[in-house]
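Record 1 of the preview.
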Amino acid sequence: MTPRRLRLAALFLVPILAVGCGDTAREGSMEETTFDVADDTAPRVEYGMVIHGGAGTITRESMTPELEEQYRARMEEALRAGHAVLAGGGPALDAVEATLRILEDAELFNAGRGAVFTADGTNSLDASIMDGATLQAGAVAGVSTVRNPITLARYVMERSPHVMLSGTGAEQFAREQGIEVTPPEYFRTDRRWQQLQEAQEAERAAQAGGAGMASGKAPATWKYGTVGAAALDQAGNLAAGTTTGGMTNKKWGRIGDSPVIGAGTYANANCALSATGWGEYFIRNVVAYDICARAEYLGVPLPEAARQVIMEKLEAQEPETGGIIGLDREGRVVMAFNSQGMYRGWVDQDGNVTVAIYRDQ
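->
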C-alpha cells in the first residue's frame, strides 16, 4: 500500500457502534471498517443520512465515558429521527430539519441550547438549509431568541423572497411566521459560560504578553463545533443543513460559514454537504461548493473531492481547520476532517446506525 493510501485508510478508519432498528442501542462489539476514497469504496446507502456534531479538539483525555455515551445516544436519536422521515417516504429536507432540531435542543452541541457565548456574554445563532432538488436555500444569522434556528432558515427559504436574514429582522420574521421564540436565557449553560471565562482569561494573558489578536487568528480551543446533516431520500433528492452558535468569544457581530450557502452548506442534484470547523477558512475557500464542483466537473468520487479540499487545500493553509460530511446521489457517505476529532455518524436505509468521535477511529 502506498503512503498516500495508508494516510487515506487512517483518515477513514471508522469503528462501528453496532446498533439495530430498535429504540435503544444494542450492546455489541466494535467492528472496524476501512475504505479508501481513491478506490471509491466509501460506504453507500440506498437512502439515508449523515450528520456531524462539530469538529475540533476532541480527545479521549477530555471525555468521560458518561459524556461520550451522552454524545453517542443523542447522535443516534437524531439519526433515527431523520431515518423515520426517510423510511416513511418523506423528503430529504424534512429529514434534515427533524434531525437538526434534536441536536439544537440538546445542550451537548454548539447549536441552539448548547451554543457558545460571544465576547459580550450573549448567544448568537446562525443556520442554513438547502434543497438540492430546487437549489432553494434559506439562512439566518445573529439570532438570539429563536429556539430552533434551522426551522427559521427553512421558513426564510420557503416563505420569503430572500436567502438570508439577520439579527432583529430575522427575529421579527420569526414572530410574524409563528415560529417558537424564547427568552435569551434559554440558551445559557454553565459549561459554555465557563468556556467563555477561560477564553477571555487566555486572551487577557496573551494581550499582557504582547501577543493579543494582532494576527487575526483565534486559539484553536475557541473553535467549538457546529452541527449539520445531509440526507438522500427515496426519490433520489438531496438536502443539507447546518446550525451553530459560532466561535467562543466572537466579537463585532462575527458570522462564520454555517449560514453561508456554498461555504458551510451546499446541496444540488449531485451532492449535499455540511461543514464544521474554523469558519473563516471555509468561507474563503467556499468549501462546500468547491467539493461539489470538483465531483461534478472533474468526475472524481465525492469522498475523494472532500479529501482534496480538506486534507490538502485547507490543511496547507492552516492545520486542523475542521471537516465536512455529506452524501452524493449514488449514496456515497462522506466524512473527512483534519482536526483531532469530529462527532459524526450515518444511518442507512435499514436503520443501521454508525457513530464515531475521535480522529484515530
